[in-house]
């Protein structure tokens, strides 16, 4: 019993340590995204003591897109995706087991000690997943914020009225901004859940298996069929 307890304690510590590392990485990504979104604002750039430039030249737009691509790839990518996917799969497996136990006999579900352990694990994993999903979603919003490009387009139109002699040059920059806006919209991954990069297999398993299990549990508890 003592050896079993120590093994569980060590495995639990290792797993939650990896989740804490993943959360720290997501916090760093959010900080980079936050500072990146302030580059084109003079007031915010002065406040956070970061470089500032406007997207009024083609060279500046190229630098802005290159910096965005570099910051998104900065830090561990695959290892963090593996950790998050493992957390998600474990939470999914525990949820499926709990749903199966409830369907088997919901009146005696809480009488077993291992079911309480499953519920504690599920609650802890869901808290971490919600935290990571929140950070990932906010990071995506910062990087996918096309209002910056739209604001720069408005500024270019105003400059065209003030400086008609530079209309051709400003029109070229405006066209590049439009293409950049379309590019940012196309770069969003189809297998993304609140900012977390999802494997297509995990995405389909989530959509088919867990929703079917939840549908069966809700139908069993309420007494009539509900299809989720």
Automatic annotation (TrEMBL):
Lineage: superkingdom: Eukaryota
Entry keywords, A to Z: Membrane, Transmembrane, Transmembrane helix
One Gene Ontology CC term in the entry: endoplasmic reticulum
TM region positions: 6-26, 82-103, 115-133
Name of the protein in its database record: PHTF1 factor
Organism: Tricholaema leucomelas (pied barbet)
Organismal lineage: Eukaryota, Metazoa, Chordata, Craniata, Vertebrata
Gene designation: Phtf1
């Amino acid at each position: 019993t003592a050896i079993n307890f120590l093994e569980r304690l060590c495995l639990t510590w290792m797993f939650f340590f990896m989740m804490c590392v993943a959360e720290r990485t997501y916090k760093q990504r959010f900080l980079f995204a936050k500072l990146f979104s302030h580059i084109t604002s003079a007031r915010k750039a002065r406040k956070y003591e970061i470089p500032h430039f406007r997207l009024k030249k083609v060279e500046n737009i190229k630098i802005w897109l290159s910096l965005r691509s570099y910051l998104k790839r900065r830090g561990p990518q695959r290892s963090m995706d593996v950790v998050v996917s493992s957390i998600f799969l474990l939470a999914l497996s525990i949820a499926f087991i709990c749903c199966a136990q409830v369907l088997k006999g919901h009146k005696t579900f809480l009488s077993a000690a291992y079911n309480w352990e499953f519920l504690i694990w599920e609650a802890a994993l869901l808290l971490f997943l919600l935290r990571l999903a929140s950070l990932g979603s906010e990071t995506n919003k910062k990087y996918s914020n096309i209002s910056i490009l739209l604001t720069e387009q408005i500024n270019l139109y105003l400059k065209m009225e003030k400086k008609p002699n530079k209309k051709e040059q400003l029109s070229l920059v405006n066209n590049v901004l439009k293409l950049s806006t379309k590019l940012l919209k196309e770069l969003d991954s189809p297998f993304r859940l609140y900012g977390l990069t999802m494997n297509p297999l995990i995405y389909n398993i989530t959509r088919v298996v867990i929703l079917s299990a939840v549908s069966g549990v809700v139908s069993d508890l309420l007494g009539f069929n509900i299809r989720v």
